[in-house]
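seq as requested:
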Amino acid sequence: MGNVSRFIEPVVLRILKEKKRTYGYEIAECLTKYALTDATIEGAALYRTLRTLETNGHVSSTWDAGEGPARRNYSLTRSGHVHLRDWSDLLESLGKAMIEFARETKGGKRACK
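struct tokens:
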């Protein structure tokens, strides 16, 4: 389900849902707003994630050769909206499991018998 260790994929999907259509540099500027961890997300990881999402049909892109240098604009596909909902469900479940883990750890409960 994408890059779980730094949660890049769901963050990129969320940004694209909000922005509708945007380019990589603008996505990079928004990463810290939605970051799910304190890990730094490098540009190479962002563009690798965008390419993977596009290969999997969750993102589409077009070249904008307007004023200034050409840049690639990205947008979320119908499949991308579904994929973001799947991520949301996964993260919600993971969040609940993490809260329970923390409670049991602090309370001294034994996880296994």
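The radius of gyration is 17 Å.
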